[in-house]
Amino acid sequence: MSKKARKIKKYEVLLMCFVLSLLSWFILKMSANYNATYKLDVVFTNLPENKKLLRMSDSLLTVTFEDKGISLFPIELSSKRLLIDYNVITSSYQKKHNSICLQERQLIEYIKKQKPFSEHVKNIHPERICIHLENLNK
Q1: Residue 113 CB contacts under 8 Å (≥ 6 apart), including other chains
Q2: Residue 125 and residue 75: Cα distance in Å, rounded?
Q3: For residue 111, how many other CB atoms are within 10 A of its CB?
Q4: To which H or E segment does residue 120 belong?
């Protein structure tokens, strides 16, 4: 083997070791637990056809997740919007009224079921979101 071939072989081995070390570092970092806070834009969907959204107490929800880095990674890559399906999150009792307040427990349970969000919600702020609907005259 010539000197040039040995030198190229050494660089290939060095490059392979470098790539493996980067991969190992990335895996270790992604397996650690982190607290991550995101500000999510709240958007209500599937409102009843005979009602319109008049106002909302907060359109921004601050959510803190505590989970492994690999579980938080999809949130980093996604849009920071929380689409809340009115038909799913509201109870039959709530649907009878035009002023509805979604409590912390309700919001956390809803967020846990939504992709790409983590199931490990540590806390949210504000602790409730109130919406006020208006009947449309037809």
Answers
A1: none
A2: 18
A3: 19
A4: none
Rg of the chain (C-alpha set) = 24
- Are 132 and 54 contacting, i.e. CB atoms less than 8 angstroms apart? yes
* Same-domain check for residues 41 and 23: no
Same domain flag for 95 and 74: yes
Q: Which residues of the chain have pLDDT under 50?
A: none
* Model pLDDT, residue 138: 57
Q: What is residue 1's predicted lDDT score, i.e. its pLDDT? A: 60
Residue 94 structure tokens:
């709530």
Q: Per the structure, how many domains does the chain have? A: 2
Q: Is 101 in contact with 128 (CB distance < 8 Å)?
A: yes
The CATH number given to whatever domain includes residue 67 is: 2.170.120.30
* 16 and 39 belong to one structural domain: no
Residues 38 and 1 in one domain: no
CA distance 28 to 59: 36
- Let me know whether 102 and 44 are in one domain: yes
Name the nearest CA neighbour of 34 among 63, 74, 79, 64. Answer: 64
CA distance 62 to 82: 11
